[in-house]
Write a structure and sequence with these properties.
Number of domains: 2
CATH topology of the largest domain: TIM Barrel
Helix content: 40-55%
GO molecular function, one term: cyclic-guanylate-specific phosphodiesterase activity
Pfam families: EAL, GAF
Number of strands: 12
Strand order of the largest sheet: 5-6-7-8-9-10-11-12
Distance between the termini: 69 Å
Number of helices: 15
Shape: elongated
InterPro entries: Cyclic-di-GMP_PDE-like, EAL_dom, EAL_sf, GAF, GAF-like_dom_sf
Strand content: 15-25%
Protein name: EAL domain-containing protein
CATH class of the largest domain: Alpha Beta
CATH superfamily of the largest domain: EAL domain
Radius of gyration: 31 Å
CATH architecture of the largest domain: Alpha-Beta Barrel
Largest sheet: 8 strands, mixed, barrel
Organism: Starkeya nomas
Length: 352
């Protein structure tokens, strides 16, 4: 129950049992009391003389379902015979706004609980389904590893990024990320060494301490953690410290979507990644667009200068592939090379 009783001069709170609110809701007191001295029931309340309360206004905060959530109240130390219907209309308007906000918050919480329940049930059933996009060495098109990508066979139909965002909004972002990683890791044992798996992760999951145990016992030299340019990093020092023990065991770090914005450059400078992944916005039409080619060439040169390798994303045409190879890009992925597929198809393609 919400009870707000405020003096014109100081902040004061009255208990529900001893105050006016419950009595107003129960009809034992009128909503508008210009002079408490004229209302015997008001004078029986100890706070009336203790504070003192000379005039009092109170209206119920009534929710959409008819439930009384509480009351909106105000009082004056002195009586005020000017109080009347005008003031009560204003109080009722404020109470209606408050009730609307409370109803909205309740509806949002109900939606959050429904979404959480649905996601938990889906994860128990095996969601998300993982597919694997081969990452090719551009010099000979051999497969160096795979990027593990989540797919959701749920309603409503929406992209993986929307599902992960929905999970974050209901406080399950890290849990869903970790579930995707756990669903992807069995592929590592099926790939021939030294092929690696690329796992998309957020700084929050790394900092939570939940990722390292999930990777315990694996050959971390065959694991690449990918941090997107869109991930916000509040404390690079803490993130680097959390990654340190895993990187010490051979784990490699990739900064995803490089060139899509300024954040990727901050990630690169602060985290010193082993791999820099060119965003598809740079890769697209690089064989015919001089500006894209010049920017990509600068990033490629910079990456090699600091000891990082370059992987180009979104390679969709032979022209793009050939230009990226000529520019010195180390690896690439995209529909021109391989589409995302189940791990069984990756293995069959490797044998073929």
């Amino acid at each position: 129950m919400l009870q707000i009783q405020k003096s014109r001069f100081t902040r004061q709170t009255l208990s529900l049992e001893e105050g006016y609110c419950l009595k107003v809701v129960c009809g034992e007191l009128p909503e508008c009391i210009p002079d408490t001295a004229e209302v015997p029931a008001a004078m029986c309340i100890p706070a009336t003389t203790a504070i003192p309360i000379g005039a009092h206004l109170s209206v119920p905060i009534r929710l959409e379902n008819g439930e009384v959530y509480g009351t909106l109240c105000c009082f004056s130390y002195m009586s005020d015979r000017s109080l009347g219907e005008r003031e009560m209309q204003m109080m009722r308007a404020f109470a209606e706004v408050l009730a609307g906000r409370i109803d909205e918050a309740a509806a949002a919480e109900k939606l959050k609980q429904r979404e959480s329940s649905r996601l938990r049930l889906a994860m128990v059933a095996g969601t998300p389904r993982m597919v694997f996009q081969p990452i090719h060495v551009l010099s000979d098109r051999s497969v160096a590893g795979v990027e593990c990508l989540a797919r959701f066979d749920l309603e409503p139909k929406r992209g993986p990024d929307k599902w992960f965002e929905a999970a974050r909004q209901v406080g399950m972002g890290e849990e869903l990320e970790l579930r995707a990683i756990l669903n992807a890791l069995p592929a590592l044992g099926r790939l021939e060494p030294p092929a690696f798996v690329g796992l998309n992760t957020s700084p929050e999951l790394i900092l939570s301490g939940r990722l390292s145990p999930a990777l315990e016992g694996l050959d971390l030299s065959r694991v690449v953690l990918e941090i997107t340019e869109h991930a916000t990093v509040a404390d690079y020092g803490a993130l680097a410290q959390a990654l340190g023990p895993m990187r010490g065991k051979g784990l490699r770090l990739a900064v995803d979507d490089a060139g899509a914005g300024f954040a990727s450059m901050r990630h690169i400078l602060n985290l010193q990644p082993n791999i820099i992944k060119l965003d598809m916005s740079l890769t697209r039409d690089i064989d015919t667009d001089g500006a894209r080619r010049a920017l990509a060439k600068g990033l490629i040169s910079f990456a090699h200068e600091i000891g990082s390798s370059i992987t180009a994303e979104g390679v969709e045409t032979e022209g793009e592939f050939e230009m990226l190879r000529r520019l010195g890009v180390d690896r690439g992925q995209g529909y021109c090379l391989s589409r995302p597929m189940p791990i069984e198809e990756v293995l069959r393609a490797a044998v073929a």
